[in-house]
Design a protein that fits this description.
extended; about 10% strand; alpha+beta; four-stranded antiparallel sheet; 6 strands; two-stranded antiparallel sheet
Length: about 280
């Protein structure tokens, strides 16, 4: 908005004063434009410095988009306009795995005297149960005098350490799939009765994950074989205070990433080799 738009210069009677005011207004307009250009140049240089140091510049913030005028709605014909001909809502109960069944008995005292039993009406209700499943294993123990050692029966598959496979898998899902922080995951477990420390919760994510690392390595291998073309991007990233590059490799079918110290030809070839040694 022009602050001088409502200024009436014709109301100034003295010609010399009016001329001076016009010159001053022109000077103010020139200085304002020059100041805006310098501000934009300073911000551009700051963004470039941030980019070179691995940080982000000021994001472009656009103005609000005008909202379109509301379209009058005729509720009397809503179903006919939005529902395609021949369409009917399908059932999803055939895709739900039933965990248990329970019969709900009627209340005879609330029924009329001539009420007769005619069968059951099935209602599917989905729910989830979060509770502890702490197991005390009694491992059979054998002692061999000839071998001079003791033998213990192996635990069931998936059980190792202090926490079972269900809790371990849920930790990975909450952290990687739902983006829940480690402290919140530990707090959730404690609320349902699991005795776990912050360090143990962190270890569930970072220790003994050889199977997860193998699966991660298999993703780009399968992705590279799935398409004759690949897309690769290398945005800057900071690793322990050092400028490096996050190599994002993928197609519409998959995405994988790894960090490299450089983005030269050999680094790109290493990314495409997926960890295989150079020949």
């Amino acid at each position: 908005m022009d602050p001088f738009a409502e200024l009436d210069l014709a109301g100034i009677q003295d010609e010399r004063v009016r001329t001076c005011v016009i010159l001053l207004l022109n000077l103010v307009e020139d200085l304002t434009g020059e100041n805006a250009a310098r501000r934009a140049e300073v911000q551009r240089l700051r963004d470039e410095i941030n980019r070179l140091t691995g940080e982000q510049g000021q994001p472009p913030i656009q103005g609000n988009t005008p909202q379109p005028a509301p379209v009058p709605t005729d509720y009397s014909s809503e179903r006919h306009r939005h529902v395609p001909p021949g369409w009917a809502k399908g059932t999803k109960t055939d895709r739900i795995r039933m965990d248990r069944e329970q019969t709900v008995a009627g209340e005879p005292t609330t029924l009329p005297a001539d009420a007769q039993f005619t069968g059951h009406a099935d209602v599917v209700v989905q729910d989830i149960v979060l509770r502890t499943d702490t197991v005390l294993f009694h491992q059979e123990k054998y002692s061999s005098p000839s071998a001079g050692r003791t033998y213990l029966a192996s635990l069931l598959a998936g059980y190792a350490g202090q926490f079972g496979p269900g809790l371990t898998a849920l930790t990975i899902v909450l952290s990687c799939g739902a983006n829940v922080s480690e402290s919140k995951i530990v707090a959730l477990y404690r609320r349902v009765g699991v005795l776990i420390s912050a360090g143990q919760g962190s270890n569930l994510l970072i220790k003994d994950q050889a199977r997860c690392h193998a699966e991660k390595a298999a993703v780009p291998a399968a992705g590279l074989a799935s398409s004759p073309w690949q897309h690769l991007d290398d945005p800057s990233t900071r690793v322990n205070g050092q400028n490096q590059y996050c190599q994002v490799l993928g197609t519409p079918l998959y995405t994988s990433d790894q960090t490299t110290a450089a983005k030269d030809r050999q680094s790109i070839l290493d990314v495409l080799r997926n960890g295989r040694l150079r020949q």
